[in-house]
Amino acid sequence: MAQIVNTLQKNIANVDLECTSNIQLDKLVTQYSKGVGTSLDTHAPLTEVTLKGDNHKPWYDDDIHEHRRKRRQLERQYRRTNLAMHKDMFKVQSKYVVTLIKDKKAEYYQQRIRDADHKDTFEIVKTLLKPPDNQQGESIDEIIRVEELRSFFDN
User: Fold this and answer.
1) CA 83 – CA 64 distance, rounded (Å)
2) So what's the pLDDT on residue 37?
3) What does the pLDDT look like over 29-44, one tens digit per residue?
4) Across 13-25, average pLDDT
5) How far apart are CA 155 and CA 106, in angstroms?
6) 58 in Cβ contact with 108 (< 8 Å)
7) In the chain, which ranges are continuous DSSP H helix?
8) Are residues 29 and 82 in the same domain?
9) For residue 13, how many other CB atoms are within 10 A of its CB?
10) The whole model's pTM is what?
11) Number of domains in the chain
């Protein structure tokens, strides 16, 4: 860390800071900003962070969050100590979290179905029965196209 700070200080010190008039002051500020920006890009480049906001589960609440945190703590404790007692505590908490999420999810969808009209009820049921996009198997049309393509190249 100290090496990075020293290099950063040297890079900033190398920026020409001679100023003789107000007109040069704007150039000086621009030059200083570029020098500091270049040095920072070298030592601490910008990284892209993707937030998980798009995939928010409506049944996920603070209670689930706290129990998942507790589960992670118990897992770390078990991995650190490797004791059977800590393993059992971790297993119990894991089962509880799975059950809690399952119950909250069921409660959420039961409430949605109770509050929905006929049209919305069928939409809810359709979303529950449809597997996620990344888990869908190949369709019959895709299999036929693959077979046609294979037979074309085999001939």
Assistant:
1) 26
2) 79
3) 787 787 777 777 777 7
4) 67
5) 54
6) yes
7) 2-13, 22-43, 62-81, 84-115, 118-129, 140-154
8) no
9) 9
10) 0.51
11) 2
Buried b (16+ CB within 10 A) or exposed e, 44-53: eeeeeeeeee
Q: What average pLDDT does the segment 82-86 reach? A: 95
Who wins on pLDDT, 129 or 83? 83
Could you tell me the two tokens for 117?
Answer: 């009209």
Which residues make Cβ contacts (< 8 Å) with residue 41, sequence separation at least 6?
none
Structure tokens at 94: 């894991």
- Pull the structure tokens for residue 64: 């689930």
d(CA 92, CA 88): 6
d(CA 145, CA 152): 10
Using the structure block, give the residue that is written with the tokens 């049921």. 125
Domain span including residue 31: 2-43
Is position 154 within any domain? no
Phi and psi torsions of 119, nearest 5°: -65, -45
* Same domain, residue pair 100 and 78: yes
User: What is the DSSP secondary-structure string of 109-146?
Assistant: HHHHHHH--HHHHHHHHHHHHSPPGGG----HHHHHHH
Answer yes or no: is pLDDT of 107 > 90.
Answer: yes
Same domain, 38 and 94: no
